TrEMBL record:
Species annotation: Microbacterium betulae
Positions of the UniProt region annotated as Disordered: 368-392
Protein name according to UniProt: Acyltransferase
Domain of life: Bacteria
Coiled-coil spans in chain: none
């Protein structure tokens, strides 16, 4: 008999992805405004507020652990559908083709556009020159192992390499720990593993391997969503409170140094994990909540479907736009307004085109259904809605 159990739709995950992607895009638009340090010197309060967008990557990592663990949490013995290698194959198909397409695109742009080939005292300077080691390491997804490679070509792509490595740890380390010990001890080990790697191998600190613990927080959130029984109505407000603490920390006294960075990003990860449990349990019970109302807003859900394209494509395009604006000699505030309210929308449109031409071919069945449903809304034709769990 086929499984006809209705599973909840976790659209809030797509909405949260959208918020994270747009936040990091605004953060990078600010970082690329003018020459290095211009915004920090002229608009320090704005720079601190916008820096909250730098927490987008921890949000993505927790979400990744959550989404990948949801189907596993429903099985006996924490089994991966199809086994380890099919899981790796699914992850490779989803992540790698768009990544390599974006890498090729920006290598071509750097080769063809002279202004991208030379430093101009901007945030673009550490993306060039493209060295042989930088290129090979990007192809092998190990560019996060060296400070000299990590930001070449496309700065945000370092986190793709880190997440790719964590994908292997899930079946080889994290899930076995869940089976042999228990999920909470797995979380303790994962939270300790990243700082240990950073201490033992300082050059690997570039890879932010404390994200292993954040990924594990997402896994625990998925387990509590699927298997939890206690009342968690308070958890959403607790998540908001913890995130507010991290935001205030950033605005009032930006975390400085590796330990402060680990602590602040783990704090954000814990807040996101708690929020996911609260929204996931509400979705399972078919109850509306404040979090679900915010993150399941259809425009956000739609943007979340192509948030990976935003993350892959936006940064070098913002860098190019800033270099083209420099000769105008705009005041810093005017330059920032142009970057955020004129340039960024154009960049997002290019990201959307990249999604349609490249990434869409490699999306999950869940994302394809959601995209088709949203496209149907715009044309007036909608197909039947199918209940689903979030798929990866």
């Amino acid at each position: 008999m086929p499984d006809t159990t209705r599973r909840p739709k976790f659209e809030f995950a797509d909405g949260l992805r959208a918020v994270a992607a747009l936040s990091v895009a605004v953060f990078h638009a600010t970082a690329f405004t003018g020459h290095t340090g211009d915004v920090d010197e002229s608009l320090p309060a704005l720079a601190r507020i916008v820096e909250i967008g730098d927490y987008a990557v921890p949000v993505f990592i927790v979400l990744s652990g959550y989404v990948l663990m949801l189907p596993v949490a429903r099985t006996e013995g924490y089994a991966l559908r199809g086994g380890v290698w099919k899981y790796i194959g699914r992850r490779a198909r989803r992540i790698l083709p768009p990544y390599y397409a974006s890498l090729a695109l920006f290598l071509v742009l750097i080769a063809l556009i002279p202004v991208l080939q030379n430093p101009h005292d901007t945030a673009w300077d550490n993306k060039i020159p493209v060295t042989a080691g930088g290129l090979v390491s990007h192809l092998l997804l190990v560019h996060n192992w060296s400070p000299g490679w990590i930001y070449q070509i496309n700065g945000p792509a370092w986190s793709v390499a880190t997440e790719w490595h964590i994908y292997f740890l899930m079946p080889l380390v994290l899930l076995p720990l869940c089976r042999l010990l228990n999920p909470w001890l797995m979380l303790v080990v994962a939270l300790a593993m990243g700082p240990a790697i950073t201490s033992l191998f300082p050059s690997a600190g570039s890879g932010n391997y404390w994200f292993i613990g954040l990924f594990a927080l997402g896994m625990i959130a998925a387990l509590l969503t699927v298997r939890g029984t206690r009342d968690v109505r308070w958890l959403g407000w607790a998540a908001a409170g913890v995130f507010a603490v991290a935001v205030l920390w950033t605005i009032l006294d930006a975390p400085d140094g590796r330990l402060a960075e680990i602590a602040s990003e783990t704090l954000v990860g814990a807040a996101v994990a708690m929020g996911l449990v609260a929204m996931g349990r509400a979705a399972t019970a078919e109850k509306r909540s404040v979090g679900r109302r915010v993150f399941e807003w259809r425009p956000l859900v739609n943007v979340g479907l192509w948030s990976y394209s935003i993350y892959l494509i936006h940064s070098p395009l913002l860098g190019l736009a800033n270099l083209m604006l420099l000769p105008l000699g705009l005041p810093t505030l005017a330059h920032w307004l142009v970057m955020v309210f004129l340039v960024l929308p154009v960049v997002l449109a290019v990201c959307r085109v990249f999604f349609l031409l490249v990434e869409r071919r490699f999306t999950t069945s869940h994302q394809q259904r959601e995209f088709t449903r949203d496209s149907g809304r715009t044309t007036g034709r909608t197909g039947p809605e199918r209940p689903h769990a979030l798929e990866t």
